[in-house]
Design goal:
By secondary structure, the chain is α/β, with parallel strands linked by helices. The protein has one domain: 3-Layer(aba) Sandwich (Rossmann fold). Helix 1 packs across helix 4. The radius of gyration is 17 Å and the shape is globular.
């Protein structure tokens, strides 16, 4: 049954797995769950994994099914899209996944230092214009934000169909002497049996990713550490 945006927004207000701070546009003050996600929201205290720009939450839901020993939080500002993943998680009775509606710019107001174990950035807007470089989610100004949340040794995954963003991210890693773990410009041509990272990244395919690969586009993938 078709559910319009207004209906989705209304339902998000009562879904237990959707968290919406009072001021979505600007989180000037620290959010009440900052530093308390494992004690005040999730049923079990487990490693926390974020999916930034989660869209419909396909990765957050998929990862939460694959790794019940971890807690997942999908973050996006698009509430109507997020509703899809939230409803799916509810239907599957998944207690280790939540959705936070806010902008990535204010992520430090939502999570405390060393509260996050891992970050996934899945098919973000590559912001192809040179003038919008600073808006890319792997630009150094965002990586510094992630550094404040990630535990030492925490890793960041980037999965994208944009070769521009892939090359840009590799350059950022090199210039800032970050630790590059693995990378590939064509994920689905890799031998999954020889690399757990490639296997995990390929195990979940979003709707749009399926369209990209069906058209012959390659999927780029990078894993790195910020600390």
């Amino acid at each position: 049954m078709y559910v319009n945006k207004l209906q989705r927004f209304a339902e998000n207000l009562i879904l237990k797995n959707v968290i919406q701070p009072g001021n979505l546009a600007l989180m000037e003050n620290d959010f009440e769950l900052k530093g308390n996600w494992n004690t005040k929201h999730f049923e079990k205290a487990q490693p926390i994994v974020l999916e930034l720009g989660c869209g419909k939450g396909e990765y957050s839901v998929g990862l939460s099914q694959k790794y019940p020993q971890k807690n997942f939080i999908g973050i996006d500002i698009k509430g109507a899209r997020m509703w899809v993943g939230a409803k799916q998680a509810e239907a599957l009775n998944l207690n280790n996944v939540a959705f936070l509606r806010t902008r990535i710019d204010f992520i430090e107001q939502a999570f405390a230092k060393d509260e996050v174990d891992e970050i996934w950035i899945t098919f973000p807007d590559p912001q192809p214009q040179k003038t919008r470089e600073r808006k890319r989610l792997t630009h150094l100004r965002f990586l510094e934000r992630y550094r404040n949340l990630l535990k030492k040794g925490g890793i960041v995954h980037l999965k994208t169909d944009s070769r521009l963003l892939y090359d840009f991210t590799l350059e950022v890693i090199k210039e800032n002497k970050l630790e590059l773990i693995v990378h590939t410009p064509d994920l689905y041509k890799e031998d999954f049996s020889k690399n757990q990272f490639f296997s995990d990244a390929a195990s979940i395919k979003t709707h749009y990713e399926g369209i990209f690969t069906a058209k012959g586009f390659s999927i780029n993938y990078i894993v790195f550490k910020i600390h």
